[in-house]
Amino acid sequence: MVQTKGLEGVVATTSSVSSIIDDVLTYRGYNVDDLTDSAQFEEVIYLLWFNKLPTSQQLAEFKSELIENVYLPIELLNIIEKLSKENTHPMSILMNCVSALAIYDEETNQMSEGANYRKSLRLQGKLASIVAAYSRIREGKQPLIPKEDLSFAGNILYMLNGEIPDKISEKAFNKALILHADHELNASTFTARVCVATLSDMYSGITAALGALKGPLHGGANESVMKMLAEINDITQVDSYLHKAFENKEKIMGFGHRVYKTGDPRAKHLREMSRQLAKVTGEEKWYYMSLAIEKIVTNEKGLLPNVDFYSASVYHSLGIQHDLFTPIFAISRVSGWIAHILEQYENNRLIRPRAEYVGLKNQTFIPIQERD
Ligand code: ACO
């Protein structure tokens, strides 16, 4: 049996959702650079789910379907209210809430194309509302309902911060959502596919994916980057902080990637957004500290920033609370998870690899009363 640690280099499935070939990321054959520069996040969701870009009319209909699905059942708002009193990470709240949504959806276990589409809309719409509602309820504020004239990106910022975002922030957040939407067979997407390949339901698949995304080696890295920036706090401390971390063989969050060898193509967009937003907020230190960190880590360790590194300073500039960074990643990535789940259902086979056994063999059973 061939065995690769962390399944490195293993091709586990075929997929037509997104690809990383020669360090170029595409969604359904479109270069992510072009989508980031020109598309709306809603167009990208449509592209991922329907394998084609929408016409203006299709996009308008899709947007109104999405907005109809952002409302949360009252039972879930009550759950969020209760959970907001616990000192729990928002990713755990999100996992609990998505799992609970299954209870309030009569179609949870229905597998028809129509039911799966309706559940896709519900999941895409409601994840954002859960994060925004939790963020406001824990501060003793009322959750806000979205505004019909705002984009999906604009509405998330509005529902989080309680203010209509300025155009630069809305545009930047739209780009960030596009950049996080899908990424081939990353850990959380693989988790979602493994889960639904047992013919489990979409809520289970997304809950499982959220669990995988939460870890600091994956989506949790953006929050860890912000923690590092806050700990360093001053550009004059970057050098000593990093050299101490290198000495202790600590990982520098937001750097390195399993697949990219010449750099993560998403990082350059986020770096530029971080620069622009820092100018808008006037709080430029996080951007300059990030640049200084990148220079040292790249020169001395040969590691390049990944999607999570500059998204930390971008989200901070957008006024997003630091423990919501990974849930914000999830609000976008759920679009890709859904596309992969639908693809898995279409051509399903149980995912069940083997393990090479390295444990003890030929043990003799000793009755409990005779054991030392
Ligand atoms: N800081 C310091 N050293 C690193 C880093 C880093 N960020 N990343 C890799 N290395 C080193 C490792 O210590 C290891 O060195 P060694 O061979 O001397 O032991 C070598 O590079 C290979 O690293 P692995 O962890 O084996 O690489 P792998 O492909 O398994 O992991 C990963 C990729 C998890 C992204 C890794 O680079 C990492 O931990 N980065 C920090 C966390 C992070 O930013 N995660 C987000 C990734 S993007 C995303 O999921 C959205």
- For the record, give the distance between the C-alpha atoms at the N and C termini, rounded to a whole number: 37 Å
H/E series: EEEHHHHHHHHHHHHHHHH
Bound molecules: acetyl coenzyme *A
What portion of residues is helical? Answer: 55-70%
How large a portion of the residues is in β-strands, by DSSP E? under 5%
Q: Quick one: biggest sheet?
A: 3 strands, antiparallel
Give the mean pLDDT: 97
**Which segments are poorly predicted (pLDDT under 50) over 5 or more consecutive residues?**
none
Helix count, DSSP H or I runs of 4 or more residues: 16
| CA radius of gyration | 22 Å
Please, could you describe this protein's structure?
Pathway: Carbohydrate metabolism; tricarboxylic acid cycle. InterPro entries: 2-MeCitrate/Citrate_synth_II, Citrate_synth-like_lrg_a-sub, Citrate_synth-like_sm_a-sub, Citrate_synthase, Citrate_synthase_AS, Citrate_synthase_bac-typ, Citrate_synthase_sf. With 372 residues, this protein is an all-alpha fold. It has 16 helices and 3 strands. It has helices at residues 32-38, 41-50, 56-68, 74-83, 90-101, 113-137, 152-161, 167-179, 187-196, 202-214, 221-232, 238-247, 267-281, 285-301, 307-317, 325-346; strands at 18-21, 24-27, 30-31. α2 runs parallel beside α16, α8 (167-179) packs antiparallel against α15 and α9 packs across α16. The protein is globular and about 70 Å long. The two termini are 37 Å apart. The mean pLDDT is 97. The structure holds acetyl coenzyme *A (ACO). The site of acetyl coenzyme *A has 19 residues, from α15.
